[in-house]
């Protein structure tokens, strides 16, 4: 759930909106009434904890003036929001019979709620939130696990991949960015056995393993579909590559192997799939579930088990001049 657009006033009378959530982690805690014992203790404990990597925001239906007095009296270090009409209270569903249920929400830098606590007991709560925040930050600021796990595997099962899963891969690809939103990518998804066999005839011997794939996705486009910019920057290949990148990460998340290859007879495949002659058949992607390595050649078995090899970053990136 992403926090909706809103505009409220802080204890200082300043405007605070949904935009103030972006780019930082936010701990948003709803409390019933300023000055009551439980609310005071909770706000004081949130103020005492060292939240270096997040902003802490308390919210109630009290007036700005009441929140200002509450903050000054208890020397609070958190931001307090006044929501007299219950706009965010209703959005977060923290009202029962018109009364606020003590609740806390952990919000990420995009404004999405990543964890919630309802019917909060003050004892030990702030420490629990701190630990959850630390875990969330560690997760978000690490390499995306699906990018890290993705490999061009060749061991595939022949088990059919449901159409709805294949369609989800295409949807992920279709959300890629493109020059002027031209969306130059085109796909042909092949999962019918007889048609797959025809494409197998266009594969070289080294791609024998693709014959186990229950689905092949042909990716094609042409120059006219996208921006043609100075210095030979024909964006149709770049943008379609971005779409394929989305597809590969989505497949990994779903437990699928998606292996794009360049080894095939493009003229023959285009003829089989009725792809226009003036289109570039950029790649064929073999899609399936991870299978038995024993069906691979010795060379490919070694590749399947090998560690990923990447050049040092110093070889591929330069900072400034």
Automatic annotation (TrEMBL):
<feature type="disulfide bond">
    <location>
        <begin position="179"/>
        <end position="227"/>
    </location>
</feature>
<feature type="binding site">
    <location>
        <position position="154"/>
    </location>
    <ligand>
        <name>FMN</name>
    </ligand>
</feature>
<dbReference type="InterPro" id="IPR050627">
    <property type="entry name" value="Nitroreductase/BluB"/>
</dbReference>
<keyword id="KW-0285">Flavoprotein</keyword>
<feature type="domain" description="Thioredoxin">
    <location>
        <begin position="1"/>
        <end position="138"/>
    </location>
</feature>
<dbReference type="GO" id="GO:0016491">
    <property type="term" value="F:oxidoreductase activity"/>
</dbReference>
<keyword id="KW-0547">Nucleotide-binding</keyword>
<feature type="binding site">
    <location>
        <position position="262"/>
    </location>
    <ligand>
        <name>FMN</name>
    </ligand>
</feature>
<feature type="binding site">
    <location>
        <position position="151"/>
    </location>
    <ligand>
        <name>FMN</name>
    </ligand>
</feature>
<dbReference type="InterPro" id="IPR013766">
    <property type="entry name" value="Thioredoxin_domain"/>
</dbReference>
<feature type="binding site">
    <location>
        <position position="310"/>
    </location>
    <ligand>
        <name>FMN</name>
    </ligand>
</feature>
<feature type="binding site">
    <location>
        <position position="152"/>
    </location>
    <ligand>
        <name>FMN</name>
    </ligand>
</feature>
<feature type="binding site">
    <location>
        <position position="308"/>
    </location>
    <ligand>
        <name>FMN</name>
    </ligand>
</feature>
<feature type="binding site">
    <location>
        <position position="207"/>
    </location>
    <ligand>
        <name>FMN</name>
    </ligand>
</feature>
<dbReference type="InterPro" id="IPR036249">
    <property type="entry name" value="Thioredoxin-like_sf"/>
</dbReference>
<feature type="binding site">
    <location>
        <position position="209"/>
    </location>
    <ligand>
        <name>FMN</name>
    </ligand>
</feature>
<dbReference type="InterPro" id="IPR000415">
    <property type="entry name" value="Nitroreductase-like"/>
</dbReference>
<dbReference type="InterPro" id="IPR000866">
    <property type="entry name" value="AhpC/TSA"/>
</dbReference>
<feature type="binding site">
    <location>
        <position position="259"/>
    </location>
    <ligand>
        <name>FMN</name>
    </ligand>
</feature>
<feature type="binding site">
    <location>
        <position position="263"/>
    </location>
    <ligand>
        <name>FMN</name>
    </ligand>
</feature>
<dbReference type="Pfam" id="PF00881">
    <property type="entry name" value="Nitroreductase"/>
</dbReference>
<feature type="binding site">
    <location>
        <position position="150"/>
    </location>
    <ligand>
        <name>FMN</name>
    </ligand>
</feature>
<dbReference type="Pfam" id="PF00578">
    <property type="entry name" value="AhpC-TSA"/>
</dbReference>
<dbReference type="GO" id="GO:0016209">
    <property type="term" value="F:antioxidant activity"/>
</dbReference>
<protein>
    <submittedName>
        <fullName>Bacterioferritin comigratory protein/NADH dehydrogenase</fullName>
    </submittedName>
</protein>
<dbReference type="GO" id="GO:0000166">
    <property type="term" value="F:nucleotide binding"/>
</dbReference>
<keyword id="KW-0288">FMN</keyword>
<dbReference type="InterPro" id="IPR029479">
    <property type="entry name" value="Nitroreductase"/>
</dbReference>
């Amino acid at each position: 759930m992403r926090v909706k657009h809103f505009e409220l006033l802080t204890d200082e009378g300043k405007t605070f909106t949904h935009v103030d959530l972006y780019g930082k982690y936010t701990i948003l805690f709803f409390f019933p009434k300023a000055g009551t014992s439980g609310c005071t203790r909770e706000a004081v404990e949130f103020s005492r904890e060292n939240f270096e990597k997040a902003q802490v925001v308390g919210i109630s239906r009290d007036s700005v003036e009441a929140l200002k007095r509450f903050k000054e009296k208890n020397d609070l270090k958190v931001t307090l929001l006044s929501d007299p009409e219950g706009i965010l209270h209703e959005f977060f569903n923290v009202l029962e019979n018109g009364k606020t249920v003590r609740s806390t929400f952990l919000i990420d830098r995009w404004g999405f709620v990543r964890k919630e606590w309802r019917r909060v007991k003050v004892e030990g709560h702030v420490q629990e939130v701190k630990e959850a925040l630390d875990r969330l930050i560690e997760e978000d600021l690490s390499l995306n696990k699906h990018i890290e796990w993705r490999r061009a595997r060749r061991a595939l099962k022949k088990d059919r991949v449901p159409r709805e899963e294949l369609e989800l891969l295409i949807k992920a690809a279709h959300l890629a960015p493109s020059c002027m939103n031209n969306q130059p990518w085109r796909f042909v998804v092949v999962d019918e056995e007889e048609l797959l066999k025809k494409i197998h005839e266009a594969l070289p011997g080294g791609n024998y393993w693709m014959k186990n794939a229950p689905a092949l996705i042909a990716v094609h486009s042409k120059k006219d579909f996208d921006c043609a910019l100075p210095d030979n920057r024909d964006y149709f290949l770049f943008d379609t590559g971005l779409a394929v990148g989305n597809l590969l990460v989505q497949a990994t998340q779903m437990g699928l192997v998606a292996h794009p290859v360049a080894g095939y007879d493009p003229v023959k495949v285009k003829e089989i799939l009725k792809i226009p002659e003036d289109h570039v058949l950029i790649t064929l992607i073999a899609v399936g579930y991870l299978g038995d390595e024993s069906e691979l050649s010795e060379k490919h078995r070694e590749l399947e088990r090998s560690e990923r090899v990447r050049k040092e970053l110093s070889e591929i990136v330069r900072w400034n001049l």
